[in-house]
Amino acid sequence: MTTVQDDASVVAARSVGQPGAAAPGPTTRRRRSRVGIRPPKWFVLPALVAYLVVVVVPNLQGFGYSFTTWDGLSPEFEWVGLDNFARVFDDRSSYGAMVNTVLLTLAVVVVQNVLGLLLALGLNTTVKSRYLLRLVFFLPVVLTAIVTGYLWTYLLNPRGTVNQILGALGLEGAQQDWLGDPGVSLWAVAAAIVWQGVGITMVIYLAALQNVPAELVEAAKIDGAGSFRRLMAIVLPLINGAVVINLMLTITGTLKQFDMVYAMTGGGPAGATETISTVIYKNAFTLLDFPLAIAQGVLLTLVVAVIAIAQIRLTRREI
Amino acid sequence: MTSTTRRPARLALAAGAVLSLLAVTAGCSTAGSGAAGVNGGELQNADADKEIQEGDRVVTYLSQSPDADREAIRLFEEANPGYKVTMYTAPGTSYQQVVTTQLAGGTAPDVLRTFPGNGSNLAVVQASEKGFLADLSDLSFTSRLSESLRSVMVDGEGRVVGVPMNSSGIGGMYNATALEEAGLSIPTTWSEVLQFCADASDAGKVAYGLGLKDAWTGQMVPYALAATLVQDDPELDAKMAAGETSFADSEWRDVFAKYLEMGEAGCFNDNPNGTAFSTVQDELRAGDTLATVGLSLTIGATLTGAPTGTEIEFAPLPATDDPAETRLSTGVGVTLSMNAKAADPEAAKKFLEFMATPQVQSVYATASKASPGLEVDDSYSGTQADEVVLAATEQGMVAQWPDQTWPNPRVQQAHFEGVQALFAGTQTVDGLVAELDAAYTS
């Protein structure tokens, strides 16, 4: 989650540079190059070494181990080629987790982006409480996923707040065993993920919306375009960069979703909310099947990497 | 300043940066190999304020029963000046994952809780096979292990790798106070169980709380029933291992059928899959739930926070209509083992030897409100649950927890998920026993 938020903050800042934003002129750039700090290139060395040691080397080691029988502890292991990857595709729990992960990703991507855009549109107005509302909608973003997960577990308990509110409204028929019914639990987890993430999505859209030239929207209005037409024909094309960024952030963030699912359901009931990440964790640390878990981890990394690369390419083209 | 004078400064800065980085990485590796690394996971230091003198020999100890352990540690430190035990705690619901992660990473405490026999990743056979546990065969307590105790304290190569600290039964834990108020009594036959459920329901109470959101609780009712229905055949484990019988071909079918029958009879709370075990405990304390099927050693924890005067009574869960046939599912509860990578193996062994003494066994069993694991001294007085366990043991009407003889952790995992699926209506008894057989032979 931290990664998503950090990425998002950078992206939000970049979104300001969309059409309509005041681009830094050549004078500013020249002044910066003259008076700004010019640190020596080797200053990057400590960070680079730390990154190599903490991220690159373990990932490469993991990739190497995925072709072996390494059990996570013993220094002795054998080379087994692609056997571990073949086991991933033979493993039924892997299939279920893949389906769940895709469904969860689809739900979160669609709902979080639609809600985030609607909130941004609503708060990109002159309504008096807009600053307070922006703060309120952004607040869940600063909570850790584990805290959010436990909070929602409490709310979604069969006798929890959500069912109590439904009961008080006379909607007893809508009361559910939110986290205990395999048909509902995945969507309940998705709702909690959206609740936490919609704030950052809103902020990115808001940053982009604030750079849409008002005169363009005004001109379209004079030409007789309605609200929906203005949104589709003027606003969305102009904030396309933010749309691409939000889509990719939510896709990659949900594909590797672990902490919220683990805190809320542990992958249950009966595997109904198991994601690729929770299956990897269980295979590694509950069943101690490290070879299978590492192969699953490598595959997940590859999928997320492909999507991340697509994100970079699309973002470069659109912004 | 000219570039000539800046070069040494740059070099000094670069050297400083590299040295700082090396220091940081060196610090990480030191922490990873010693007791300080214990803090790296989700463990919490319960003895952060303990004063450690230079030269003290320190044992790090992962406790799941801090109240019971604190007195034992005090006695150890008193009897062994110069030795200190630093206690850590881990969350109960994710204990196995957290500790296995620490063991795999080489940062687990010196002494930790494992589980007897086989069947789960922290069971002594599995954990020792992975090289996590140290051999304790040279300790003197091993000569006092009975044959049945030894069978679940040894690894695959016959080395003793565990110290039994207490034992427990799985059966009905009844809120005696609430039972009396409702005018009900503890059932002694299967028919009475179903009647008890109906009567509890009429009284507006839940008969047996079931919190399957914590998946491990799903095994309690099947184990309690299996003691009578399945494990009356002493050759069953050998037959299953030899492939002569299976879950599908044995009375395990009856066990799960009766589990479902209890559900259909309204024995359990609504929405068990979404209900946490802590909720069940809350309801049991409050008397809204009359009973739950669980470990007798959790009675103490369940009573914590209960209204004054609340009493919980323990009894075997009947599975047939002949009370004489009812057997109690029992097993060693807390087992202590030594991390193969203990920082001070000699000190850790000294501590474990001390934990096996009659004095500490008495203290531990009393404080944990469980039956003792080994022989006790005169200071020990048993609880009602201990008397039930002891009586069943003396009559030979006990059966070891079945997962202790299952060959791999996948069976237990399949069991957890299968029970949830059974109550979600997405699995049948036939499907569940087939899943268990598949996991057993995997």
UniProtKB/TrEMBL annotation, chain A:
Domain ABC transmembrane type-1: 98-311
Chief place where the protein resides: membrane
Membrane topology: Multi-pass membrane protein
Subcellular location: Cell membrane
Segments passing through the bilayer: 42-60, 97-119, 131-152, 186-209, 230-251, 290-310
Keyword annotations from UniProtKB, A to Z: Cell membrane, Membrane, Transmembrane, Transmembrane helix, Transport
A cellular-component GO term for this protein: plasma membrane
InterPro entries: ABC_transporter_permease (IPR051393), MetI-like (IPR000515), MetI-like_sf (IPR035906)
Secretion signal, residue range per the UniProt entry: none
The keyword Membrane is assigned to this record: yes
GO BP field: transmembrane transport
Keyword Transport tagged: yes
Family label: Belongs to the binding-protein-dependent transport system permease family.
PANTHER family: ABC TRANSPORTER PERMEASE PROTEIN, DIACETYLCHITOBIOSE UPTAKE SYSTEM PERMEASE PROTEIN NGCF
Protein name: ABC transporter permease subunit
Record organism: Auraticoccus cholistanensis
Automatic annotation (TrEMBL), chain B:
The UniProt record lists the keyword Signal: yes
InterPro entries attached to this UniProt entry: Bact_solute-bd_prot1, SBP
UniProt keyword terms in alphabetical order: Signal
PROSITE patterns found in the cross-reference section: PROKAR_LIPOPROTEIN
Regions crossing the membrane: none
Gene3D superfamilies: Periplasmic binding protein-like II
Name this protein carries in UniProt: Extracellular solute-binding protein
Lineage: Bacteria, Bacillati, Actinomycetota, Actinomycetes, Propionibacteriales
